[in-house]
## 1
Amino acid sequence: MDAHVANEIICRPVRPTKSIPSLTEDVTAGLFATRKHLPAKYFYDERGSALFDQICDEPEYYPTRTEDALLERSAREIIATVEPAQIIEFGSGMSRKIRHLFKACSELECYPTYIPFDVCDDVMIKSGQELSGKFTWLEVAPLSGDYTAGLGNLPVVAGQNLLMFLGGTIGNFTEEQGISFLHEVRGLMSSTDQLLLGADRVKDPDVLHAAYNDVAGITAEFNLNILDVLNRELSADFDRANFEHYAFYNPEENQIEMHLVCMCDQEVWFDALDRSLSFNEGDAIRTEISRKFTRETLEYMFNEAGFEVRSHYESSAIPFSLVLARPR
Ligand code: AVJ
């Protein structure tokens, strides 16, 4: 067929520069602890990723569509300001959010290379093919790896780069982890590069609560799915009927907390670890924090990480922020 179909999309692996804990290590340190907790990244096996996709379509879950509308409104200004030669996206997923930017690129005749960076090659290739079908000028050059495993081996080239971390995923990090991740990103950037960050904002607790407790129960399924991940990966024998999804907004910490609450006394056997874990009725596993920011806490985080905020795009009806920042 024609030229762009022949353009194969090839993923380049990014070797980690930090050793990241294995599932076994995370479970040993987090589940076999007095306050049981697990890193949120373990939600995202194939089923978990599909469930998250479904969450985004639930009427109560506002973040995805709010950020999307904001990005659509701000895309032209962002592209005109940065004039990127490369767009590097951390945690690109199915590359759905980015479409508005490429539309603006077409209109402004700015033709950056798109560099999605995520763990799943197949998803990046499939999404990349769809994108380059729609935007025929687009070159897609994915990087495959875990962006929390150190960025030292990221092949960042000279020229104007727009780095992006969208979706509000920064909220899954503690304040300290968030600052340290942004600081690491800062280390890749030259003075003309810019970072676009999507972050959810503090808002009416009822709106927050509803977003993580959709009536259709998709978020509950998503939360419980982590038990299936543990059963499969560590040959454990969690019975999900013994656990309940419990998510609430903690206004002192400005964060949503998701838990799985154990409804009876029980022992769970982990064959791969050759040990069991005992639960008492009422015990909880914290599976996720999702921090919500204010203008001030966002500015503080950027400042600590060595950035200066250039533009702050925000939605009003349901607060959400897109922050464009550059190295200070
Ligand atoms: C993908 C991390 C932005 O924190 O809102 C959705 C994940 N958890 N519902 C979020 C999530 C429960 C989501 N992020």
## 2
Amino acid sequence: MAGTGLFTEILDGEAYKYYSDGEWKKSSSGKLVPIINPTTRKVHYKVQACTQEEVNKVMESAKTAQKSWAKTPLWKRAELLHKAASILKEQKAPIAECLVKEIAKPAKDAVTEVVRSGDLISYTAEEGVRILGEGKFLLSDSFPGNERTKYCLTSKIPLGVVLAIPPFNYPVNLAVSKIGPALIAGNSLVLKPPTQGAVSALHMVHCFHLAGFPKGLISCVTGKGSEIGDFLTMHPGVNCISFTGGDTGIAISKKAGMIPLQMELGGKDACIVLEDADLDLVAANIIKGGFSYSGQRCTAVKVVLVMESVADALVEKVKAKVAKLTVGPPEENCDITPVVSESSANYIEGLVMDAMKKEATFCQEYKREGNLIWPLLLDNVRPDMRIAWEEPFGPVLPVIRITTVEEGIHHCNASNFGLQGCVFTKDINKAMLISDAMETGTVQINSAPARGPDHFPFQGIKDSGIGSQGITNSINMMTKIKTTVINLPTPSYTMG
Ligand code: G3H
């Protein structure tokens, strides 16, 4: 159970502590931040409202710890990461329980998130050993006008302190996707979890504590974005920011200093369906892609662009599947669970009302109870409706009927977002042409968008973000290049 057994140390009465300098602490602010259970809409957990002074202390210890961590052999860093991964997987039940209570993730998906996170950490440790154990060796005579008098040795070195800010929808997985690469590359890590998801993240951080990482190397500060958000992202001690979330990321990128940024800020992933597509496959992927975790995924299918000639048939198939989705509490493993907050539910409702006013076809009746919104497919959506462009982050999916493929590509490319997209057709040649024309970081052919497997590159263009993620790319992004050049007095050519 959360906050018990191995986790007793992280709880103080009714409030979870924050993690600084290898210890679990209460904030000197004396203030707590409540976490509302999206299902009951009542306060379920409380976390510390850390102060700017406490952030300063965390940054100081992170800086000190990083200096010795960078001198820790790579195999030892990997060994500790493997240990953390295995503790995390052993502790999947209490962590999944937190995910259910604070973000209403269906119980079985919550367990999957924790297990996936353990696997991600282990893979990161292995990949780090492979790619950071290698460098480049360059010879000067490959550039015109040079003799072989210079040997250039290139290696990847840590950046320093990495600030990780994951989103509410994957507070464990999208935290470790930043923590693992940062640590294996020799950086220290300061985590600012989302408020909804903070307690899951604190449990996850305790697994790193139990694995025996040096004190100060990992810290976790909780609190209000309004009090410590800007202070963290503009802190002079931060050498890199890895952020996943909404358009706050754009504001962060404008305020952050001259440091590397990795940002994933959402998407409006289009699903283009051609006449020759396998409509059963498409319908199954629309359900999985559009409605899993109630549509609260950056990579969810967020607009279907289907050729008019097959639109009726596709809509019927999707409607039949929507009817089978179970709706209710996450504890009961329902497919559709309450969205994360009342304001989120209100925003989704605003998009639905706009579509209603502009006469979209409602394939189901719109229904909402508290934060729970029943799955809704909107047919005959037109570009003048907000739902055609905005990201609901909820179980509402628009269908736009198109008469040419170019129309579909045009709609996809007219979006401010450019995370992923997908195309369904049996013609691989057409699929390749469409993929090339779609201005998104990734295009999936004959499957719904998805970030995983977690070692695949994952990136958005336009307002969807900057930098590429995925295990290998994140490790590389969290390093910088150092070269040492050996200058010889006379040219020297190895003769064998
Ligand atoms: O919400 C953003 C996540 O990066 C999406 O990850 O495709 O594994 O659900 P996912």
